[in-house]
């Protein structure tokens, strides 16, 4: 009985690990971005990368807005300048991320068209 319970636990753990690894293949993260970009061949590959950049753009846009607001809160000392420069940098990063997403979507269209020919 104890052996059977151990085998069930081992099987469940193995299945969860295999599922997590399989799902990781369909998600672009900071850790695997370089590999995903290097190995992108299909429209789906490029769309996954575009979605990563969309999320990064949204995160950077949110940080830009936060620092714009904070610049209005701080009226004295070095803080308004700090907030202004961070807001500008995050906005530039968001704009670049949006451009990268658009570029990946263009590559996705090209990859999709090449597959259909």
Query: Total helix count?
Result: 4
Instruction: Decide which structural class fits the backbone.
Output: mainly alpha
Order of helices and strands: HHHH
Distance from first to last alpha carbon: 58 Å
Radius of gyration: 22 Å
Could you name the key traits of this structure?
117 residues, mainly alpha, 4 helices, 85% helix, flat
How is the secondary structure organized here?
Layout: H1 2-24, H2 33-39, H3 43-73, H4 79-116
Helix pairs in contact: 3-4
Summarize the structure.
The protein has 117 residues and is an all-alpha fold. 85% of the residues lie in helices and 0% in strands. The longest helix has 38 residues, at 79-116.
Can you offer a commentary on this structure?
With 117 residues, this protein is mostly helical. The chain has one domain. 85% of the residues lie in helices and 0% in strands. The chain has four helices and no strands. Helix 3 packs antiparallel against helix 4. It is flat and about 65 Å long. The N and C termini lie far apart (58 Å).
């Amino acid at each position: 009985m104890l052996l059977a319970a151990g085998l069930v636990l081992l099987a469940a753990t193995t299945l969860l690990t295999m599922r997590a690894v399989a799902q990781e293949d369909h998600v672009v993260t900071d850790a695997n971005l370089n590999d995903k970009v290097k190995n992108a061949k299909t429209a789906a590959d490029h769309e996954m990368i575009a979605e990563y950049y969309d999320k990064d753009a949204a995160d950077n846009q949110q940080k830009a807005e936060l620092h714009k607001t904070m610049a209005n809160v701080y009226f004295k000392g070095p803080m308004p300048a700090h907030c202004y420069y961070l807001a500008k940098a995050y906005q530039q990063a968001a704009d670049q991320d949006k451009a990268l997403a658009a570029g990946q979507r263009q590559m996705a269209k090209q990859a999709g068209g090449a597959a259909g020919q």
